[in-house]
Design a protein that fits this description.
The protein is an alpha/beta fold and 356 residues long. The protein folds into two domains: 5-165 and 319-355, Quinone Oxidoreductase, Chain A, domain 1, CATH 3.90.180; 166-297, NAD(P)-binding Rossmann-like Domain (Rossmann fold, 3-Layer(aba) Sandwich). Helices cover 23% and strands 26% of the residues. The chain has helices spanning 46-52, 105-108, 157-160, 166-176, 192-203, 218-224, 235-239, 259-262, 285-289, 303-316, 330-338; strands spanning 5-12, 21-28, 34-44, 72-79, 91-94, 97-99, 119-120, 140-144, 184-188, 207-212, 228-231, 245-250, 265-273, 294-297, 322-326, 345-349. Strands 3, 4, 5, 8, 15 and 16 form a six-stranded mixed β-sheet that branches. Strands 11-10-9-12-13-14 form a six-stranded parallel β-sheet, covered by helices on one side. A two-stranded antiparallel ribbon has the order 1-2. α4 (166-176) crosses α10 (303-316). The structure holds NADP nicotinamide-adenine-dinucleotide phosphate (NAP) and zinc ion. NADP nicotinamide-adenine-dinucleotide phosphate binds at residues 45-47, 50, 165-166, 169, 189-194, 212-214, 217, 251-254, 256, 274-277, 298-300, 337, 340, 342.
Length: 356
């Protein structure tokens, strides 16, 4: 039986070539284990744009209409009868996932992101209402309490929202690969993910080098915590770092020469890709074998680790640097993302949806 529903305001796109426009969507009334959240801020991730424009059609085709958004913070408005961790009035957050089976080996290991039955916040089958899940460009959302996170009360909400994707996606691989004191760490691409990676790598005590295609971001990179900044189009500057890195995080959203960065890794160095350009990347064998280098990927992070990351941010007062926009500017924001023109995350003030 389908649960009862209510209407929520949202922004959705009807096709890969349509803009996002105001709409009404159905949300379920909270069932036993659900938490209903009034969304206050939602970050804009480049993945929202890839999905809206169906750029990942080969791996994860988009179902329309799509309501993107997976960097959600807000206030609890209602809870189901079996909910124990949240009550109305609490601050709460939701990231990229809203469910998983909870029983597989990955879920048991706290790696819900790899569960074969994981449900993404948007564009995944909605087992409650049929159709597909709708994300955070909306005035409310209803989520199983296992996938609701706590926001430390000292963090500004607009800047806390991006932690739910840009934060955990950079925190998790750096923890996994042991980024810390004595390590030389590169961050490629100073966008939403990249600027969080710089903040975390700096907080973990590493020597941080930012690689950017945008020379005007140099000062910001240093302010965010970089020790050095390399303009990656400058071959001489790149050459100086050859064979010297322990770890590099690549957070670039578009096609680029990943080999240029593999060559900067030292013996046993690792390059982890979190950026997800649609086109395949060229990787010559010799770039890896000569120094026992490794090339890997990483996808967001599990729920427990996401809470750990939020608590770390609370303790170190870390949030994203955001440009707060009303939802009416979302299409313009997407065009600016494509020009690498964001400092360093757009965060949508969802109060702007009330006038729609
Ligand atoms: P973003 O804010 O748009 O940042 C991307 C940055 O990449 C830009 O600011 C720019 O930095 C650099 N860049 C853009 N085009 C480039 C080009 N042609 N050549 C070289 N550098 C270029 O995007 P984001 O939200 O941080 O997301 C980055 C990527 O990560 C996206 O592909 C997104 O889908 C993916 N992602 C993956 C996960 C995961 O779980 N693995 C999670 C979230 C997002 P500079 O100006 O400094 O060069
Ligand atoms: Zn994201």
């Amino acid at each position: 039986m389908h649960p009862t529903t209510y209407k929520a305001k949202a922004y959705s796109a009807g096709s890969a070539t349509s803009p996002l426009v105001s709409t009404n969507i159905n949300r379920r009334e909270p069932t036993e284990r659900d938490v209903q959240i009034e969304i206050l801020f939602c970050g804009i991730c480049h993945s929202d744009l890839h999905s809206v424009r169906n750029e990942w059609s080969e791996f994860m085709a988009t179902n329309y209409p799509i309501v993107p958004g997976h960097e959600i913070v807000g206030r609890v408005t209602k809870v189901g009868s079996a909910v124990t961790k949240y009550k109305p009035g609490d601050l709460a957050a939701v990231g990229c996932m809203v469910n998983s089976d909870g029983t597989c080996a990955h879920c048991k290991a706290g790696l819900e992101q790899f569960c074969p039955n994981m449900i993404l916040t948007f564009n995944s089958p909605d087992k409650h209402l049929g159709g597909f899940t709708y994300g955070g460009y909306s005035d409310s959302i209803v989520v199983d309490e296992r996938f609701v996170l706590r926001v430390p009360s000292n963090l500004k909400l607009a800047g806390a929202a991006p932690l739910l994707c840009a934060g955990i996606t950079t925190y998790s691989p750096m923890r996994h690969w042991g980024v810390g004191k004595g390590k030389k760490v590169g961050v490629v691409g100073l966008g939403g993910l990249g600027h969080m990676a710089v903040k975390f790598a700096h907080a973990f005590g590493a020597h941080v080098v930012v690689f950017t295609t945008s020379p005007h971001k140099k000062e910001d990179a240093l302010r965010l915590g970089a020790d050095e900044v390399v303009v990656s189009r400058n071959a001489d500057e790149m050459k100086k770092h050859e064979g010297s890195f322990d770890f590099i995080l690549d957070a670039v959203s578009a096609d680029h020469d990943v080999n240029a960065y593999l060559n900067l890794l030292g013996v046993n160095g690792n390059l982890t890709l979190v950026g997800a350009p649609a086109e395949p990347l060229d990787v010559p064998a010799f770039s890896l074998i000569v120094r026992r280098r490794s090339f890997s990927g990483s996808m967001i992070g599990g729920i427990a680790e996401t809470q750990e990351m939020l608590d770390f941010c609370g303790a170190h007062n870390i949030t994203a640097d955001v440009e707060v926009i009303p939802i009416q500017k979302v299409n313009e924001a997407y065009e600016r993302l494509l020009k690498s023109d964001v400092k360093y995350r757009f965060s949508i003030d969802m109060a702007s949806l009330k006038s729609e």
